[in-house]
């Protein structure tokens, strides 16, 4: 809320006590609410004075410019060329002298406009810093006219309220009482221990007629409107508001409209109580009803938009026709205009949750809805309504019909809260006496009485609806006593060294391994579409993913059951921006429904690679990633994670998202823990990505598996001996089967088996293939002899011939 220092000073002796605006803002920030800004509307402006247009004549070389003679002091008249359509002689105007600074630090210079000398500028409000949202519409296309009693040569700032200081406060939801001058005055009076001089005005009614029979209100359910009152004001004259009222509104960021609307906005700022004025003669019926809207019911609001309402919205209706959206915005059909002579004035409290929902759904957030959402003081509903009627009588010459309609009136009761002095001091770490605490509540204007030597009973008034518990009162004591006066103490704690447990250590190591292999970490949403959630499951399940009741958007409706889909979106994002080489991994949780209320959560790790893993240069060409590159990444990852069990890769053609000839299940000791393969070309086309290879592992299985105790391998200092062997085998026999057979019979000295050639061709029998391997033998403690290597090699050859029917080439 934009709080005027001068308005506060009307009720509190701030200047008398030499409390400056900056100090006041700093005190509020330390005690009550956050401060966004402290500024004066005249900041950055210079040499703006009152001028009087003595005469004007058309510009000889223009059809829209006028040459004005403007008196800026008793002995100085300036010639200024002006193009405003409303310029006229005899009016007091804003003059920017030569050398003046106006909005955006623009400097005014002496110059010629189409050959005619101009010594300054006649200004509109927008040109001296007023925003388009608050400048009165009547002057939006022209210059502003100052009051007739403005003296030429004076600074314009006091006439426009620009010499004020505005404190822009940022409220937390619990301090809705600070959305009014009334609330700010109460709080500052308590903070500074000042006399509270808040003033109200009592309405004078016209006793010649009564409101009964002329206006009635029915409320279907008082839960939606616990307070609702109305007054009837007749024979008023809609006109422009006086300057003091317009200044208060535009300094608070509200555009002045006319005296009727401006008075309702003035009361909103003063009391925090929104009001609404219906044109009494435009109401279809003078029996009003506060009710829920009908589903599909339509209302044209004051902004000219047709709103389709829902059954949980709240409306004010007349003759079963909605005429206002309660707590949010009035209807166009009953709006106050220049022909209005009688109004029905409404003050009420509406259900904050319903107001928030309808305002959010219709995107109709307003000053009124903001206050209804945060709470309204039930003590001042009638008071605000009466004061509005008073000003309508004073400023619009309206006749206030005797009596008011009270359709709903809440029971206003103080809340009694008992607190202990000992407990207060224990919580705050202070040594306050009972007298100290009582004095704080007296400053807050809370009734307080002692029950015994330790306990106090505090009566919290309804205007502080945020206080419900003893802890809330502790906070009030702390902030008024002064947070800076509370002793500083260090927290007591045990001297336990921090660190990561085994699981946390291995999870962190998992990320480091993948980053060391050249992959970059990505983080994607845990929420996705149903279709994407069901793709790339490590162990495909027939169940549907967990659905959200209130999703953020149509792209985030279900919890993910795998990570790969999110990585493919990242690949697509990069590819669309001409990034061809992308290698990403993500480690996070997936959510697997298991029939319970909450899904089962598992830690997974996944990767996606496209393009080349190495950037090409003059000596080395970039090599596109293939199945064996991504398989090598997984193999190295599992080795670095010290997995002790047997890891197998088994061809898999069952996954529709992956290429049937380039996909493998990953097994650990015979149990599926993941997959690796190429994204199916048809799915890649759907994602708009090039050839991409992915893997995903159930990290829970990796973490729970047996692991090797030692990670290092002793390097022998003795020479190695190699033997090459070429085998002719059936097409159905896999490389893994051959390697397993060789390792099984290779003996203690066999260190490595490497496939170096694969051949399919017309020179081989049908359904046969040739594979060539290099076998490396090495001992750790001696140099191997030829006969030892030959004997071990012969065992391998014999075993391959016997078990795989291999022919040695």
Automatic annotation (TrEMBL):
UniProt entry keywords in alphabetical sequence: Aminoacyl-tRNA synthetase, ATP-binding, Cytoplasm, Ligase, Magnesium, Metal-binding, Nucleotide-binding, Protein biosynthesis, RNA-binding, tRNA-binding
Domain TRNA-binding intervals: 42-157
Names of the cofactor(s): Mg(2+)
Enzyme class: ligase
Cofactor binding remark: Binds 2 magnesium ions per tetramer.
Main location: cytoplasm
Start and end residues of each B5 domain: 412-488
Binding residues annotated for Mg(2+), in chain numbering: 466, 472, 475-476
A molecular function GO annotation: phenylalanine-tRNA ligase activity
EC number: 6.1.1.20
Family listed: Belongs to the phenylalanyl-tRNA synthetase beta subunit family. Type 1 subfamily.
NCBIfam families: pheT_bact, YtpR
Subunit comment: Tetramer of two alpha and two beta subunits.
Protein name in UniProt: Phenylalanine--tRNA ligase beta subunit
Gene of this entry: pheT
């Amino acid at each position: 809320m934009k709080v005027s220092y001068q308005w506060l000073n009307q009720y509190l002796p701030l200047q008398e006590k030499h409390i400056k605006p900056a100090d006041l803002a700093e005190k509020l920030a330390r005690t009550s609410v956050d401060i966004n800004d402290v500024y004066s509307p005249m900041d950055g402006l210079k040499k703006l004075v009152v001028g009087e247009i003595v005469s004007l004549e058309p510009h000889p070389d223009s059809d829209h410019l006028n040459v004005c003679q403007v008196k800026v002091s008793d002995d100085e008249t300036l010639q200024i060329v002006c193009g405003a359509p409303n310029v006229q002689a005899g009016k007091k105007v804003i003059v920017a002298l030569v050398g003046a600074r106006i909005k955006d630090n623009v400097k005014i210079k002496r110059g010629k406009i189409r050959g005619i000398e101009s010594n300054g500028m006649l200004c509109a409000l927008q040109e001296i810093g007023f925003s388009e949202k608050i400048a009165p519409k009547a002057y939006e296309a022209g210059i502003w006219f100052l009051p007739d009693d403005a003296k030429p040569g004076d600074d314009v700032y006091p006439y426009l309220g620009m010499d004020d200081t505005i404190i822009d406060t940022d409220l937390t939801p619990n301090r809705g009482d600070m959305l009014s001058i009334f609330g700010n005055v109460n709080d500052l009076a308590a903070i500074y221990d000042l006399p509270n001089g808040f003033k109200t005005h009592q309405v004078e009614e016209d006793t010649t007629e009564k409101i009964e029979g002329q206006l009635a209100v029915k409320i279907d359910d008082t839960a939606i409107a616990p307070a609702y009152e109305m007054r009837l004001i007749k024979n008023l004259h809609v006109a422009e508001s006086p300057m003091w009222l317009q200044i208060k509104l535009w300094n608070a960021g509200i555009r002045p409209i006319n005296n009727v609307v401006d008075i309702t906005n003035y009361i909103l700022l003063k009391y925090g109580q929104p009001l609404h004025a219906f044109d009494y003669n435009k109401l279809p019926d003078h029996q009003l009803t506060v009710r829920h809207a009908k589903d599909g019911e339509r209302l044209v609001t004051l902004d000219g938009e047709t709103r389709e309402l829902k059954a949980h919205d709240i409306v004010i209706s007349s003759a079963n026709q909605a005429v206002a959206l309660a707590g949010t915005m009035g209807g166009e059909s009953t709006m106050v205009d220049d022909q209005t002579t009688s109004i029905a004035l409404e003050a009420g409290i509406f259900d904050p949750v319903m107001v928030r929902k309808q305002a959010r759904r219709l995107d109709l957030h307003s000053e009124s809805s903001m206050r209804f959402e945060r709470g309204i003081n039930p003590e001042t509903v009638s008071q605000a309504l009466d004061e509005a009627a008073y000003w309508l009588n004073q400023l619009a010459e309206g006749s206030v019909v005797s009596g008011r309609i009270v359709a709903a009136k809440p029971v206003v009761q103080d809340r009694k809260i008992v607190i202990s002095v000992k407990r207060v001091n224990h919580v705050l770490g202070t040594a306050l006496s009972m007298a100290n605490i009582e004095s704080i509540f007296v400053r807050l204007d809370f009734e307080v009485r002692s029950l015994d030597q330790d306990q106090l009973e505090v009566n919290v008034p309804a205007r502080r609806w945020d206080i419900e518990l003893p802890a809330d009162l502790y906070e009030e004591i702390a902030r008024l006593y002064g947070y800076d006066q509370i002793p500083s103490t260090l927290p007591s704690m045990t001297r336990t060294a921090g660190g990561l447990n085994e699981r946390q250590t291995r999870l962190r190591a998992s990320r480091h391994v993948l980053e060391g292999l050249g992959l970059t970490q990505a983080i994607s949403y845990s929420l996705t579409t149903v279709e994407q959630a069901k793709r790339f499951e490590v162990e495909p399940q027939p169940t549907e993913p967990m659905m959200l009741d209130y999703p953020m958007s149509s792209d985030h409706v279900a919890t993910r059951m795998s990570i790969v889909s999110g990585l493919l979106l990242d690949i697509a994002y990069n590819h669309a921006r001409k990034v061809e080489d992308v290698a990403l991994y993500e480690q996070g949780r997936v959510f697997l429904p298991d029939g319970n209320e909450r899904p089962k959560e598992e830690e997974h790790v996944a990767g996606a690679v496209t393009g080349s893993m190495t950037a090409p240069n003059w000596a080395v060409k970039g090599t596109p990633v293939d199945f064996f590159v991504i398989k090598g990444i997984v193999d190295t990852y599992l080795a670095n994670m010290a997995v002790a069990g047997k890891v197998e890769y088994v061809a898999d053609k069952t996954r529709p998202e992956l290429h049937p000839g380039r996909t493998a299940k990953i097994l650990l000791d015979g149990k599926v823990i993941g997959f690796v393969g190429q994204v199916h070309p048809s799915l890649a086309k759907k994602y708009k990505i090039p050839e991409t290879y992915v893997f995903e592992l159930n990290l829970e299985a990796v973490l729970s598996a047996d692991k090797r105790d030692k990670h290092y391998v002793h390097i022998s200092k003795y020479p190695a001996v190699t033997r090459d062997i070429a085998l002719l085998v059936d097409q159905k026999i896999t490389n893994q089967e051959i390697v397993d057979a060789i390792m099984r019979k290779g003996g203690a000295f066999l260190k490595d088996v490497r496939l170096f050639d694969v051949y399919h061709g017309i020179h081989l029998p049908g359904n046969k293939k040739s594979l060539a391997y290099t076998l490396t033998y090495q001992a750790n403690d001696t140099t191997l002899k030829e006969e030892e290597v030959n004997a071990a090699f012969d065992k391998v050859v014999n075993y391959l011939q016997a078990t795989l029917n291999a022919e040695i080439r």
